[in-house]
Amino acid sequence: MNFEKLLENKIIEKLNKKQEPDFSESEKDLDAARDIFLSGHFDWALNIAYNAILLSSREFMFLLGYRPIGKEHHKAVFEFLKEANFEHNLVEYFNKIRVIRNKNVYGDAESITESLADETIQKAEEFVQKIRTFVQKIRTGEKHEKI
């Protein structure tokens, strides 16, 4: 994993100290997304599921000693995940969800369908589990070619 380009472009910065990850907030968000989904608030369910992956991704970054910076810090997280060789399909999926969420929160809100919200929650659960697994591999020194 080489993050020099991201550092040079001021997309991320090094932390003074690496931090042990805490996925409890991500887990709470996944639980909340499921609950909100069941109440029929699909827009919020998607937003909360997205937040779960954002939080878990940031925890992963902190463990490696980095954090996103700049105006586009959500986008920076996905750039970091790409450089870390995190599963391409999940990164691309949530990068698209990032754009949908941004429009939904800040701009031309389109209604989020039940099927999109459900798919996003399921993929968020998969995403968070994969981040947790990769963190465990780092802790145990297990070789990791790809997350």
Task: Name the strands of the widest sheet in spatial order.
Answer: 1-2
Percent range for β-strand residues: under 5%
Instruction: Give the distance, in angstroms, between the N- and C-terminal Cα atoms.
Output: 11 Å
CATH H level, superfamily name: Nucleotidyltransferases  domain 2
Individual helix count: 6
Average pLDDT confidence is 92
Q: Would you identify the regions where 5 or more consecutive residues have pLDDT less than 50? A: none
CATH topology: Four Helix Bundle (Hemerythrin (Met), subunit A)
Give the H and E element order: HEHHEHHH
CATH class designation: Mainly Alpha
Give a quick account of the main beta sheet: strands, pairing sense, barrel closure.
2 strands, antiparallel
- Rg, rounded, reads 15 Å
Helix content: 55-70%
CATH architecture: Up-down Bundle
Question: Number of domains in the coordinates?
Answer: 1
Estimate the global geometry from the Cα principal axes: globular
Total E-strand runs: 2
User: Structural class of the secondary elements?
Assistant: mainly alpha
Provide a descriptive summary of the structure in words:
- It contains six helices and two strands, in the order H-E-H-H-E-H-H-H.
- The protein is mainly alpha-helical and 147 residues long.
- It has a single domain, classed as Up-down Bundle (Four Helix Bundle (Hemerythrin (Met), subunit A)).
- A two-stranded antiparallel ribbon has the order 1-2.
- Helix 3 packs across helix 4 and helix 4 runs antiparallel to helix 5.
- The protein starts with a helix and ends in a 7-residue tail after the last helix.
- The model has no long low-confidence stretch (mean pLDDT 92).
